[in-house]
Amino acid sequence: MSEPARPPTATAAQARVVEEVLAWGRPRPIAPSGLVPALARRLDAAFAGGTGPAAGPPTRGMLAVRGLVGSGTWSLEAPFVHDRATVRGILLGRSFARDVEQRHGASVGDLVAAVADELAGERPADPASASAWWNTAPAARRRELMAEIADVLADVRTLWPPLPREHLDVTVRPQVRVPIGAGAVLLAARPDLVLDSPRHDDRARALVVVTRTGMPRPVQDRALVRATALVQTLATGRPPFRWVVLHLTDGRLETEDLDAQVLLATAERIGTLAARSVAAPSTGA
Predict the structure, then answer these.
(1) Which residues contact 263 (CB under 8 A, 6 or more apart)?
(2) pTM (whole model) above 0.85
(3) What's the rounded Cα separation, in Å, for the pair 139 and 234?
(4) CB neighbours of 55 closer than 8 A, spacing ≥ 6?
(5) Model confidence over 194-253: pLDDT tens digits?
């Protein structure tokens, strides 16, 4: 299989992303042998050790790694209230990922408007959803927010090049889930973007991207992208060669290459946090 053409770059920042983040044309590392089953065992052992035999089977549900690393514990039934900042982050992250998928083919204003329309139709009857906040916000406030996001996205385009699609799989916001606790709980993650190769061999080939907005929180941001890479690895059976945090507001990129020990430590940490979450008393909704 031939290598995909190098992405065209129009700015020095785009050229740096191709070289330093995408590592275009460089050989991918060989995935550590036995890593995926070792991660599953470490995750399950940490979860079982945290719940304990006397705790009984946990309530069936889904735990998002974003919540686990964000608060240190996350109840299966914990309510979440959206505001302007969280909806801005959701729309900006989705708009960036869709823009990469579409290779900068639409105007930023049209793209943001399309993403906002999609959000408006998601769980509108759920008062805890981002769509509920969006649909009840005044029209002028929605227009102002879309204009702000379009301005930021235009700046991000000078950083991120349009990617050639031949021989490259671009997946926008995949919902990846893995069972823990003998299937009683699903651990969920949603990377904003996964760039992968259709080649399936003994090499790690995927790049996992998580976007962030607002004030950088280095420790938490790193924990989130590592946990996302963990779930991606377990769900697909293939570790990524690199995971990336992209701070959309200022364009800063933080990258970390595949490291088996980092993923094993992350599996232990996430398993412990998941056990603490299901053992916590419900806060009620």
Answers:
(1) 35, 39, 226, 229, 230, 233, 239
(2) yes
(3) 42
(4) 279
(5) 999 988 899 999 999 999 988 888 899 999 999 999 999 999 999 999 999 999 989 999
Q: 37 to each of 47, 73, 146, 236, how far by Cα in Å?
A: 15, 25, 44, 12
193-196/169-172 β-pairing: antiparallel
Residue holding tokens 């950088």? Answer: 216
Q: Note the pLDDT tens digit of each residue in 169-210.
A: 999 999 999 999 888 899 999 999 999 998 889 999 999 999
- Asked whether 189 and 232 are in contact (CB, 8 A), the reply is yes
Return the C-alpha torsion angle 165, 242, 225, 158, nearest 10.
-50
- Residue 58's SS3 state is coil
Torsional sign, CA 222, 224, 229, 234: positive
Q: Give the whole-angstrom CA distance, residue 277 versus residue 96.
A: 31
